[in-house]
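INPUT
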Amino acid sequence: MLDGKILTMAFESSCDETSAAFVLEGREVLSNIISSQIDIHKEFGGVVPEIASRHHLSNINWVTEKARKAASEKYGRTIAWDDVDIVGVTKGPGLVGALLIGIATAKAFAAVLGRPLVGVHHIHGHISANYIEHKDLKPPFTALVVSGGHTSLVRADDYDSFTVIGETRDDAAGEAYDKVARVLGLGYPGGPLIDETAKKGDPGAVEFKRVFLEKGSYDFSFSGIKTGVLNYVNSEKQAGRWDYSQISDVAAGFQQAVLDVIVTKAIAAVKENSGTMGRKLVVAGGVAANSRLREMLTSECEKEDIRLYIPSPVLCTDNAAMIGCAAYYRYKAGKTDGLSMDAYASIPI
Ligand code: KG4
Ligand code: ZN
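OUTPUT
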């Protein structure tokens, strides 16, 4: 406890970011240290699971100590390990070998300090990032989750209770960005590179198919668009027309096709559920950092009189503060885990 307030220490290691955070009363971030492995995986064109686990292992101790020191500085007095009330950690979905490093660390602290361990669903964490920056936000609301592994529309009935109303049937939005970036030779991670490249292109120059699926469905499908981009590039090459100046137009056209579908479905879901969920749209996950998506959602929500919540870009991508926030609310709901808790490659939202 810090002056009567609950202190959560949290860990996130589901993919290529090693992160530790200290969060007070669920929403006040005292520290959020993130060590990214992007530069290490770049040369392989994507995350190599075995390499990710090794780096989590060598980073987790200094990241944790740095988080404790940064939290002490912010709070204005030394925070001792014993001040920690709850230990939160991502339990999945993610790379199992990577998750296990955060989980083993969290278990060690929980066992030594005699504090509850709270395993958090990675996506509950992403959604909770919004509570950190929007102090007035409370459930119920409709959430759009767009990350490297998920593209879902979710009803957040309570802090720790969710109903999926639509999800991708194949690739996630971030996965589509990463694959198309590879096709265009932009490199890794694809999302931010396409975001930047598309700014220089004309989104109307090359049209890619928008896949809306059956009428009324909130599901998504993005696997076709990668093939669409690949076919376009190959046919331009065969016709001798392809040159590098086209890359920005193709990136912009791809992005617009994906985002048109995401924004249309998200707005429709909010409107349909507004009776119970209110006219609120909460956006979460790495792709929520995308500048064009943020622009489009801002203007559509304004038109439709919907209150839009998006975290700032650093809280959109993977970090432990969001896990600390979700762990706090899960603990408040009476849900804790034993020291035998597993890591999960996939678990439903
Ligand atoms: O949420 P996240 O950090 O990790 C997962 O839980 O998957 O999301 C990572 C995904 C990657 O596919 C990355 O390319 C994408 O988010 N991403 C972006 C942007 N920043 C990250 N996609 C589009 N535009 C961005 N600015
Ligand atoms: Zn994530």
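end of record. The chain has two domains: 7-134+316-332, 141-310.
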